[in-house]
Design goal:
The complex is a heterodimer. Chain A is an alpha+beta fold. In chain A, 17% of the residues lie in helices and 35% in strands. In chain A, a hairpin with a 2-residue loop joins strand 3 and strand 4. By secondary structure, chain B is of the alpha+beta class. A 5-stranded antiparallel beta sheet of chain B has the order 1-3-4-5-2, covered by helices on one side. Classes of the chains: A alpha+beta, B alpha+beta. Chains A and B meet through helix 2 and strand 2 of A and helix 1, helix 3 and strand 2 of B. Strand 2 of chain A pairs antiparallel with strand 2 of chain B, so a sheet runs across the interface.
Amino acid sequence: MPEDSVITDEMREAIGLESEPITTEIEQGAIVKFARAIGDDNPLYSDEEAARASRFGGIVAPPTFLRSVRAPRPPREFPSQFSANLDGGSEWTYFEPVRPGDRITVTAKIADFNERKGRLGTMLFTIRETRYANQFGNTVAIQRSTGISYDPEASKDD
Amino acid sequence: MSDQVYYEDVEEGMDIPTLRKDPTTQQLVMYAGASGDYYQIHYDKDYALNNGLPDVILHGALKNAFLGQLMTDWIGQQGTLKKLSVQYRGMDVPGTPVFAKGAVSKKYEQDGEHIVECDIRLEKEDGQTTTPGHAIVALPSRG
């Protein structure tokens, strides 16, 4: 670990700690609104009749809809020396469709921290794992996302 | 929706149909509202400039959604999206088109499923990839 590491012992100890769950009931209107916002006219997301005739038997949510479902923060917060944040990417694993009326329970944890010097100065990478389960207790999806934090002043120096 | 793709139709190296999207500032506001992501870099230009950005930029998750649509459009109603990963390496700004593209990298049978893996990406008009990714799907089989 470099001496000027931005990853503190306190942060390392928080890796793997799971948050309290948050449960949200999925409304059909929210699915329709999300599909419209992303510009996806797939009838599975908004056309009840067409969706009912499909093998899904009814409306389902687009793959990234779960981004709109409120997720808890990992259980510990840290004072950050970085005020600017970017989304570095996501890796989704899907197990079951999400449907209107589902009660989706979301838990989150920090899976890892990394740091790197780059275009925006020192950048802190926070890997979060968010798990989504339905009312039957089945995991419907897992999202591993990478958050990038940096100092906006440092990025103006070059 | 009528032309369902089957596992037997797919060959390694083949391109999947490109999806063009024309994101606007209005779409960024719609996405902010639908997703609940109100970070100002996506709709407040002064705020974005003060954070060292060239303009308001597309939500990474919106680009993720475009690449999700690329896959679900291609695999049709009989296909299943199993995995979707994206990395935001470059920024995209509204008012200019982006192109979701992909090619089949592998196909194989596993646990009774017909699996196809694809390398996917979001490109700017000049061909620069801002968002590479990878997808794993299961397709129906004629067999």
